[in-house]
Design a protein that fits this description.
Layout (H helix, E strand, L loop, with lengths): L1 H10 L9 E5 L5 H14 L8 E5 L11 H11 L4 E5 L10 H17 L5 E6 L1 H8 L11 E5 L4 H14 L3 E2 L1 H17 L6 H18 L5 E2 L1 H12 L11
Parallel strand pairs: 1-4, 1-5, 2-3, 3-4, 6-7
Helix pairs in contact: 3-4, 6-7, 6-8, 7-9, 8-9
Length: 247
């Protein structure tokens, strides 16, 4: 990503025919975080007029009213003018019952990317298989995204470091025993938690550890083994199902 940005900074925006990117990877692998850093980097290097990033989901760009979807897409580009437009889970545009409206959004997206090529950088993100299918849904879409970046996820050791990073940011200490157990714990959580979302699940695990610590030793700003064990039980618990009835 930085190499692409450096080339543009050295030779100008017109040096590359396409500056848009597609981020491919599972949940919690850093796609949104990287897009935010990319936007800031481009702003600092003068590649874009501003370091702002305007984030949308696919649902934000689709209207159930005929003719409204292109307007939503144009408004999204107007808000991102001079910076970066980030569309998360972009593959949703071509899935589901609103497929016709989604195709309308994709057509508007292609048109706007051409018309505002020099003013808006576009990054789309989502799961790899679904995103590849999304790019093939329109003959002109795939060629508008020159760069694909794959986010492979994190090892258990890296997830442990992310947990410790959260603790440092929030000014909590992590006991030596917890630090030693974290990689193994991350592997266990990875296997047992339904819908495991990498760093996002680690964030939930950390928050649950803090809540447990407040109950177990509120006078100490420290994550102990008992806190971690309770947090693991919390994130492993399946959501309670609600019964839906009609009166």
């Amino acid at each position: 990503i930085s190499r692409v940005a450096d080339a543009i900074a050295a030779y100008g925006r017109d040096a590359l025919e396409c500056t848009n990117a597609c981020f491919l990877g599972g949940p919690g692998t850093g796609k949104t975080e990287m897009a935010e850093r990319f936007a800031k980097y481009c702003g600092l290097r003068g590649i874009t007029k501003t370091d702002k990033i305007v984030k949308f989901s696919a649902a934000d760009l689709i209207s159930n009213h005929v003719g409204e979807t292109p307007k939503l897409v144009r408004e999204a580009f107007d808000r991102a003018d001079g910076g970066m437009l980030f569309v998360d889970e972009a593959y949703s545009l071509t899935q589901g019952d609103c497929n016709d409206y989604g195709k309308e959004a994709v057509n508007a997206l292609v048109e706007a990317m051409d018309r505002l090529r020099a003013r808006v950088m576009v990054v789309v993100a989502g799961y790899e298989d679904e995103m590849l299918e999304f790019l093939r849904s329109n003959p002109g879409l795939e060629s508008r995204f020159e760069f694909s970046v794959r986010f492979e996820g994190y090892t258990d050791e890296e997830l442990a470091k992310i947990f410790c990073h959260f603790s440092t940011t929030k000014q909590f200490l992590v006991s030596d025993e917890v630090r030693a157990r974290l990689p193994e714990t991350m592997g266990m959580v990875r296997r047992s938690v339904e819908g495991f979302a990498s760093a996002r699940t680690v964030r939930k695990l950390f928050d649950s550890s803090v809540i447990a610590a407040a109950q177990n030793h509120p006078d100490l700003r420290t994550i102990e083994c008992v806190d971690l064990e309770e947090a693991v039980s919390e994130v492993e618990a399946k959501p309670r199902c609600r019964r839906v009835g009609f009166a």
